[in-house]
Design brief:
This is NADH:flavin oxidoreductase/NADH oxidase N-terminal domain-containing protein. With 383 residues, the protein is an alpha/beta fold. Helix 1 packs parallel to helix 2 and helix 3 runs parallel beside helix 6. The protein starts with 20 loop residues before the first strand and ends in a 36-residue tail after the last helix. Bound molecules: flavin mononucleotide (FMN). Flavin mononucleotide binds next to strand 4 and helix 10.
Length: 383
């Protein structure tokens, strides 16, 4: 149902977003990517079978999907019922979900994640403090493991220099496990103020060792993760998400442009598959502001495939592809609410609105797999 996007010079062929793109070993039939979206429906950190339906609804032949942020270890979690990939049980639980996506002919990457200080001791083994680049506590409130109560973010503990290789290993294990579960690759979560971003951003990182101070030092640990994960599963199976201009979870940087270009240049040396930047206009997870900043210099500096996300519509996505500002466009909220988004773009059909209230609830169907396909909308003719 709605899983094919047939393009030809007469229809999708003239829609830039719906043109094919070869990304390393992956022959994509179009450029409308499912952005990673936390849905908080993986009870006890174990992905559930309802995710097989959710992801397969959004899969198209030759499409590219990125699964939600998934913890690399038992210290990586900070939100209710988000999945993990560090145990055998979790790997097994992912398998039918990946299979369901592959059955539709789509490519599926897993976003691997460590929240760092964006956590509470209730999520941590033995109630320890969460880890970070620094001891600086995050203000605001954390959603507690029940998914209902709110609590403070706990004061983090700055990682000792000799503990860093263990976290690099955790990312490697997660990547290896993702491949074992059948995923085509991983997207390293280096965005939105989580652990890797906590090292990159100078409003957080106050270290005086080789992981603090200069851009080279602040980016050292994220690049060590990239290098190690690339060695583990092959660079053609590795992407990374970055939000140098973002301020999610108090993660501003004093020179985001320099950070964006430094990372794009450094990442090119590892020959990874793609880099996925959040548009500079997006400051929080999805709060947009007016800005003249662009990703043009980062685009120029990076040698692999380029993906952007943040506030894109069909029109802006087409513009980005047509002007060669990016190779791919990831859609979050519109794809969440429109399982057949590429097809709706093809037909220029109206979109279902997204319902914010059900983004993160634990219900296995509501706000998750019950957004209608075009055919199911009574006021539209059957296609
Ligand atoms: C419900 C929800 C969950 C999200 N979860 C993640 C996540 O797990 N990982 C991530 O990198 N970004 C996450 N984001 C950010 C999206 O991937 C995307 O960058 C953002 O929604 C902006 O794109 P959009 O305007 O197309 O929605 C989330 C956003 C939403 C709305």
């Amino acid at each position: 149902m709605g899983s094919e996007v047939h393009t030809s010079p007469d229809d999708g062929g003239s829609i830039p977003l719906l043109t094919p793109f070869r990304m390393g070993p992956f022959h994509l039939s179009h450029r409308v990517v499912l952005a990673p979206l936390t849905r908080s429906r993986s009870y006890g950190c174990v992905p559930q079978l309802h995710a097989a339906l959710y992801y397969s609804q959004r899969a198209t032949s030759g499409g590219f999907l990125i699964a939600e942020a998934t913890g690399v270890s038992d210290t990586a979690q900070g939100y209710p019922h988000t999945p993990g990939i560090w145990t055998e049980e979790q790997v097994e639980a992912w398998k039918p979900i990946v299979q369901a996506v592959h059955n539709k002919g789509a490519f599926f990457f897993l976003q691997i994640w460590h929240v760092g200080r964006v956590s509470n001791t209730a999520y941590q083994p033995g109630g320890q403090p969460p880890i970070s680049s620094s001891n600086k506590k995050l203000s605001g409130k954390a959603r507690m493991p029940s998914g209902i109560e709110l609590g403070d973010y706990s004061e983090p503990r700055a990682l000792e220099i000799d503990e860093i290789p263990q976290i690099v290993d955790d990312f490697c294990l997660a990547a290896r496990n993702a491949i074992a579960a059948g995923f085509d690759g991983v997207e390293i979560h280096g965005a939105h103020g989580y652990l890797l971003d906590q090292f990159m951003k100078d409003s957080i990182n106050d270290r005086t060792d080789e992981h603090g101070g200069s851009l080279e030092n602040r980016c050292r640990f994220p690049l060590e993760v990239v290098e190690a994960v690339s060695k583990e599963i092959g660079p053609e199976r590795v992407g990374i998400r970055l939000s140098p201009f973002g301020e999610h979870s108090e993660s501003a940087d004093s020179n985001p442009e320099a950070l964006a270009v430094y990372m794009a240049t450094a990442l090119s040396k590892y020959h990874i598959l793609y880099v996925h930047y959040i548009e500079p206009r997006v400051k929080g997870s999805f709060i947009e502001v007016h800005t003249h900043d662009t990703l043009a210099s980062a685009r120029k500096a990076f040698k692999g495939a380029f993906m952007v996300a943040g506030g894109h519509t069909r029109e802006s996505g087409d513009e980005v592809i047509e002007s060669d500002a990016s190779d791919l466009v990831a859609y979050g909220r519109w794809f969440l609410a429109n399982p057949d988004l590429p097809r709706r773009f093809l037909l220029n059909a109206p979109l279902n609105n997204y319902i914010r209230e059900t983004f993160y609830i634990q219900h296995p169907v509501k706000g998750y797999t019950d957004y209608p396909f075009l055919e199911e909308m009574e006021h539209l003719p059957k296609l």
